[in-house]
Amino acid sequence: VGLPYVKKLVTLWRSHGHADSEGHKVISKVDAERALGVYATVYDDYLELAVQFGYLSLFAAVMPLAPMLALLNNALEMRTDASKIAVSSRRPLPWRAKDIGEWWWVLQAVSYLAVVTNTALIAMAWHSQAHHASETFAAGTVVLFVVVEHAVLLLKALVALAVPDKPGWLELAIEDEARSAERATRAR
User: Fold this and answer.
1) What are phi and psi of 77, to 5 degrees?
2) Closest CA to 122 of 64, 66, 61
3) Tens digit of each residue's pLDDT (9 = 90 or more) over 84-125
4) How many CB atoms lie within 10 A of CB 119?
């Protein structure tokens, strides 16, 4: 947590400045920021979140405590990333994006795989509980796995269709903003 501050102090100490009347090194804020490292792309941040989402969703049946631990991790990560951006690197150049791009497809694929993985893990655990499992029981477990897995995938698809990508209030706000921008443009 304190590493960004230490890096900034070392960078300030190493950077070139001019001496004041008493011989002390004086560094302007611009020179200090220019001496800082360039912020990496958001690709690494997205990758880290996608991997975490993968572990959480693919193996939620095995470790139900993992989402709480991930929440604590993300709270700490948010603060350290903010510190990294604000203190130990140059300000990143802003850029506009319509959405999260290809990461949406990655998260969708992981979410469908998570249904299959968690259903299989639960079916295997259920099967292993029956110590005297016969071949008929094993075949029934496989059939039950396929039926439950397909039912959950269908439910996931129905929820995805029923829940809009943008809530109604957001759509209205976007339309109001577009109308305001259009009026401001016509007023010129």
Assistant:
1) -65, -40
2) 61
3) 788 778 777 777 888 888 999 999 999 999 999 999 988 888
4) 21
Cα–Cα distance, 48 to 143 (Å, whole number): 36
Whether the Cβ atoms of residue 64 and residue 56 lie closer than 8 Å to each other = no
Residue 173 sits at φ, ψ, to 5 deg, of -65, -40
Measured CA to CA in angstroms, residue 3 lies from 16, 33, 138, 183 at distances of 22, 17, 54, 49
Q: What is the pLDDT of residues 54-63, one digit of tens each?
A: 999 999 888 8
Predicted TM-score (pTM) of this structure: 0.68
Cβ neighbours for 120, distance < 8 A, ≥ 6 positions apart:
145, 149
Whether the pLDDT of residue 24 is over 60: the answer is no
Burial code (b: 16+ CB inside 10 Å, e: under 16) for 129-161 equals: eeeeeeeeeeeebeeebeeebeeeeeeeeeeee
Q: Does 40 have pLDDT greater than 80?
A: no
Residue 150, amino acid:
H
- Helix, strand, or coil here: 37? strand
Amino acid letter, 18: H
Q: Which amino acid is at 106?
A: V
Specify whether the CB–CB gap between 36 and 11 falls below 8 A: yes
